[in-house]
């Protein structure tokens, strides 16, 4: 399916140049706009994949129009095409979630290369988004089975959109790479004690021994999942940060600022909650 593009520029000459490059290379131009109001109307109606954005427009500028585009659909990619380019403008463009920046006069190879990078970045993230949750669920199930010879059963799945009260112990592993994310496992102290006793084949001597064992267990789950995902696509380049553990009687855990998925599972030792997600992060174009 062709990438759908809206061209935002108040110059008929620039629009013609950009349109010719795009259409000659298989892109579908689905609209044009030259003002803020036109941008809002065209984007809402056409819902493009990509917008090329001039910086100088009557009564507005490219950054205000970019914010308007993302208010309608934050997943639409914006590439600025402007005669102006300096460090301050580039910094402001980054801060407004611009995906690429090209200086006029438009060079066809530069424009096509920038679009390909932007689209490829989105496709790579979508590949990760489609795969990660099932992979992490499976590695948790597999690790529990290998280390305790018991099974777990997932009973509910949901997107976590609110803060939640911990069952008693939370282990968090940060994930870094082309995209950043986190794995979180939450369970009660009683479940943790029983689980660690089964893994160690002896009673744990202290809460510190329990949390250390859970940190390593969670690290194994995360490491195995990231290895599987990296084999699916080397571009992910996922790596782990050291795990952190929190425990207490009444702990409120903040939900992530990005989309995460949760699964509650019944185990032989009690309920365990898995939560994992990734953010798009920064696609470095400067």
From TrEMBL:
All residue ranges annotated as the Response regulatory domain in the record: 4-119
Chain positions with 4-aspartylphosphate modification: 54
Source superkingdom: Bacteria
Keywords of this entry: Chemotaxis, Phosphoprotein, Two-component regulatory system
Database matches in InterPro entries: Bact_response_regulator, CheC-like_sf, CheX-like_dom, CheY-like_superfamily, Sig_transdc_resp-reg_receiver
Residues in the signal sequence: none
Pfam families, alphabetized: CheX, Response_reg
SMART domains recorded: REC
Protein name: Two-component system response regulator
Lineage of origin: Bacteria, Bacillati, Bacillota, Bacilli, Bacillales
